[in-house]
Amino acid sequence: QEQPEEEEEESHSEEEEESESSQEVSWIQWFCSLQGNEFFTDVAEDFVQDEFNLTGLGSLVPYYDYALDIILDIETPQDEVLTEEQQELVESAAEILYGLIHARYILTQRGMLQMVDKFKRLEFGRCPRVMCDGQGVLPVGQSDQPQKHTVKVYCPRCCEIFYPRSSRNRATDGAYFGTTFPHLVVMAFPELCPGESPCYVPKIFGFRLHRDALPSKVPADSK
Questions:
Q1: Judging by DSSP bridges, how do beta strands 203-204 and 207-208 pair with one another?
Q2: CA angle 33–37–38, rounded 5-degree value
Q3: What are 139's strand-pairing partners?
Q4: pLDDT tens digits for range 165-174
Q5: How are beta strands 161-162 and 207-208 bridged, if at all?
Q6: How much is the pTM?
């Protein structure tokens, strides 16, 4: 009678260990879950592990090897202990490296599909332009070089860019999404864009204004 009880205790302990391991969160999952990082998607680890996908990033990111280890949850060898200041620099470098890898990943079919799912759930927000009727937007960078511009959102209906609606997303580097991504999505998934939005027509007492009555938008230098 005692043996079955021991077996039950062992099975319970094994189940607890399995549940604990299943609850462990990877660095990538943790980073993407942070407030302000809602625009990011989880980059597949096999993509990060492929050196070809990381070509050229080593010269852009300090402490590259250490940063890559953090992203992949690889512990630093005991004989390479970093100071507290160095550890902070490495953690910052890991965020930059992940952002640059992310910009490449979302141009792949797998990464693009993940981002399209977020787009369909309106996780990037809606276009603030009235005539676009709540059209969903996509993140875009104004430069592919880091530390140039913060991320903006692109409306595939009016083809304009805007600041993200939430202030917590406005500090994210635009290079982590790149200049190509939203336009590639529109080409690959034309059904996501319902067509061009109509232009607002200014009127006075119900009559449309003649073009000559409208303020000129042509700069004085170009006349």
A1: antiparallel
A2: 80
A3: 153
A4: 998 999 999 9
A5: unpaired
A6: 0.81
Reported as a pLDDT band with limits 50, 70 and 90, residue 220 is very low
Query: Where on the phi/psi map is residue 74: left (φ > 0), alpha (ψ -120 to 50), or beta?
Result: beta
- Whether 176 and 210 have beta carbons less than 8 Å apart is answered as no
Give the range among 35-44, 65-74, 82-91, 124-133 with minimum mean pLDDT. Answer: 82-91
Alpha carbon distance, N-terminus to C-terminus of the chain:
99
